[in-house]
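Protocol step 4 of 5: obtain the predicted structure for the target chain.
Materials: sequence only (see below). No template structures provided, no constraints applied. The aim of this step is simply to have a reference model before the mutagenesis design in step 5. Sequence pasted as it appears in the construct record:
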Amino acid sequence: MTRYLCIVIVALAMMTGMVAGCSSGGDDGNQPTTQECYISLDCSPGYYCQLPEGICVSSLPTDGDASDPDPVDTDDAIDTTDTADGDDIADGDDDPTEQDSPAEEEQDLPTETDTTDTPTCRDDVKEDNDTRAQSATLPLNATVALLVSADNDYYSFQACADGQLTITAVFKHAEGDINLALFNDGGAALARSETDTDNEQITLTTTADEPLYVAVYNATPEPCTPYSLTINLINCGGNADGDIDTPDTDPDPVDTDPEIDNTPDLCDPDPCNGHGTCNPANGSCSCNDGYGGDTCNQCAAGYVGYPNCAPQTTAPSAAGDIIITEIMYDPHFALIDDTAEWFELHNPGNLAMNLAGCIVKENLDDSTTIAEMIIPPGGYALLCRSDNSNLNGGLTPDYVFEFALSNSTSGETLTLTCNSIVIDEVNYDSGPDFPDEPAHSISLDPSAYDVYDNDDGANWCLGQDSYYTGATSPDEDNFGTPGAANPTCPTQ
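Step 4 output (structure tokens):
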């Protein structure tokens, strides 16, 4: 019956001119095979729109139903793959082991749900359009139907000054919670629609001749959600100031009278999904560490597990995966070696490093095995002799080590080993090759953040910034940047 209704609808459409023009900007419905289409009305009579490929073909598979290309069944053909479901009307039997012949195959009852017609999530004709840079262009003032959202979908169009814009996404909320956002070319959010009902809509007055981007994103972890999208833009240049006047509407292009505030609150509801800070001026998001995307709705590079993004960790496995960048072997004045020595490790890579099981030691004497310590990409870890901030110079260590850092002119070697692999070691001394001054760390110049360059004492300098203030005089300060990036060494 549905097939006959479709034929009648197409016939009426041709009589009334509904087929004149296609959604993709074609020429009066004369779309040949392989022409891009969104719905069958885009194709010439006798052709149908095959999705997800989006091309006009001379015929569609009837209803297999596994080969049916439409995610929502539009035909009502005889089911050739149906097994027993209690409504055989051709031969009256219901033998589950019998394969009915075509002559005695059943006709689906009106209330029957086709179990083989379960939608599967397949990319629509506009994929891959997962980012603004990959956005697909859409025709204005036309409905583009039978798209699916399992990830972010971005579409672009050209706006105008003072145009009346309406963007509508039609879908069933029970199949997934689709939301809409509108961005300008710089990534600033102009408007959003995030309700918990069927369909979403954005309405506003555009302000400039510029490209705009519509983001369709699925806030429910569903396999996919079918939807249609319409972008209507009318009255370009027909509105003087784009606001709603009070009853004394004035004729001047720039309003001077008090007006109804029609400015949307771009930060309510929160566009950053609880993982960032919204800028009320333009609705853009500054994402928290570990989160990314225009709306902080995904994990940043090196993080996994959205919505609870955590560093994607790996173990150091080669020299240079972790490097030693600063050593305080001679704290002074109110600080003593036994509680205030420390050294610093740096992760120069783009994955978090878990040092569980790694060993730090000086020379071949005492050592400490790290139970668990994660250094984020580009981050630093501080290892101290004590976790008592009253004794270690006010520091909060990432780990406590249990051996002394010697200061000897003959040289001392600080080593990090993971899985029996030497990840980094520094053979430092208290002069003459390395710098040396009490109450100062030795600090590696950032240009020498390398497993080999940090072997050269010429690439190190004394700590420059005070991290501990002397109790009686600035002359008793201790200097260094424990657990943070080192400043550039002064020119010799």
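Step 4 remarks: Residues 2-16 form the longest helix (15 residues). The domain at 132-245 is CATH 2.60.120.380 (Jelly Rolls).
Proceed to step 5.
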